[in-house]
Structure formats: C-alpha cells, structure tokens
Amino acid sequence: EDKVVQSPLSLVVHEGDTVTLNCSYEVTNFRSLLWYKQEKKAPTFLFMLTSSGIEKKSGRLSSILDKKELFSILNITATQTGDSAVYLCAVEGYNNNDMRFGAGTRLTVKP
Amino acid sequence: DAGVIQSPRHEVTEMGQEVTLRCKPISGHNSLFWYRQTMMRGLELLIYFNNNVPIDDSGMPEDRFSAKMPNASFSTLKIQPSEPRDSAVYFCASSLAGSKQYFGPGTRLTVT
Predict the structure, then answer these.
(1) Rounded to the nearest 5°, which phi and psi values hold at B38?
(2) Contacts of A57 (CB under 8 A, 6+ apart)
C-alpha cells in the first residue's frame, strides 16, 4: 500500500534556526513529490520534485529528492515566525493522478 | 486568475440534513480533486475527476457521499444524510494535466 511518512510530527525552534523536515515514501510507479505549506487555510504549493539530486530553491527554502532511498527533505534556513505552519509532503504515482499526503510536520518558530 | 473557488466557506447544519459543497476550478484545468481534512486523519483524497469524468472514488467514505462534475467549471460534493462525524474542512483542488494542484480556500463543515 502506498504511504507517505513525515518526521518529525512537530518541531519548535527559535528565529534564525535552520530546520530540516523529512518525508519518506512508498508508492507504486513514483511520478513526483510535492511540498505544501499550510497555515490556517488551504495548502499552498512550495516545490515539485521529480528527479533525484537536483535541489529546488526558493529564498530560504530548499528541497531535494532521493529516489533511491525514497525520501525528500525540506530545509528552511534563518527561520522566521512567518514560517510557522504545517508542512505537508505529498506523492504522486503514474498509475493515477491522485496524491497521497503525509500527516504533516507542524513547525513553530518562536521569536 | 481568481484561483479555485469554493462555497460556502462555512456550513453549520443538523444531523440528517443534506449538505452540498461547491467548487469552481481554475479555468483551463482538467483535473479536479475533493479532499477532507480532520485533525485525526489529516488530508484525505475523497474523489477526483479528469476531464469531468470521475476516475477514483475509492476515498469516498460511504454511500452518503456523492460527487458530480457536470461541466469543466463546476463540481459538487453532496452528503446526504449528514452526520456529526462528517464535520471537517473540505478542500477542492484543480490541476492541469497532472501538474501541481492548486487548492481552494476550503469549506468548514460542522454537523451538530
């Protein structure tokens, strides 16, 4: 059965810290892995990863995929209180277009 | 672009009543997804459509739930009869040809 596991489930840091969020997966015919940020509303898209070893970067956020070991990490450097959110990892397979979401990592950044 | 539009944003209803949630996907997108999010179960896919055709409804909890997409710009998710355990936030998302999904603001449903 396809599954997506995120860790840690919850993380509390102080502004300026760097955090690494993890996502491991098992999915039939992997197509892509996506990261979303969810605050008190709908998830918003961060990254889509399809190839191993190629880092995607957007400001202080970056992400990389390892298709051999079946995981991805999301890094946030110099965290700010505005980074506080639940970060969701989702995986798509080629068999269909649906996505399986992980439980999310709740990140709290304290001033 | 207005993004994915959902209505209503909030719905409070009594057990046994029929509930209809509505979604307008982003114009030009050909895939539409309905999700349910709860604290206990996280974000779950209920059903999705490709080119207005339901592809996978294995996530629909039971026969009380039904979804339709009569045209490319409109979809509904209906719960009849509703139960307190259906209380959740229901998200609609759309995408183009399997690319990233864009989520609507969600409908917060409370069934008392």
Answers:
(1) -130, 165
(2) none
Q: Is the Cβ of B94 closer than 8 Å to some Cβ of chain A?
A: no
Structure tokens at A101: 């979401």
pLDDT of residue A3: 87
Out of B44, B102, B105, closest to residue A45 by CB? B102
User: What residue type is assigned to position B21 of the chain?
Assistant: L
- pLDDT (tens digit per residue) in B25-67: 999 999 999 999 988 888 888 998 999 999 878 788 889 999 9
Amino acid at residue number B57? D
Average pLDDT over residues A76-102: 87
Instruction: Determine, for residues B45 and A99 on separate chains, whether the beta-carbon distance falls below 8 Å.
Output: yes
What is the spatial distance between Cα A65 and Cα A33, in angstroms, rounded to a whole number? 8
pLDDT of residue A30: 87
Residue with tokens 């209809």: B20
Tell me whether residues B42 and A92 touch, CB distance under 8 A: no
What is the DSSP-derived secondary structure letter of residue B86?
Answer: G
- Residue A95's pLDDT is 63
Q: How many CB atoms lie within 10 A of CB B44?
A: 15
Q: Which among A76, A81, A72 has a CA at the least distance from the CA of A60?
A: A76
Q: How far apart are the C-alpha atoms of B69 and B73, rounded to whole Å?
A: 8
Distance from CA of A81 to the nearest CA of B (A): 22
- A48/A29 Cα distance (integer angstroms): 16
Q: What tokens were used for A4?
A: 């997506």
**CA distance, residue B81 to nearest chain A CA (Å):** 26
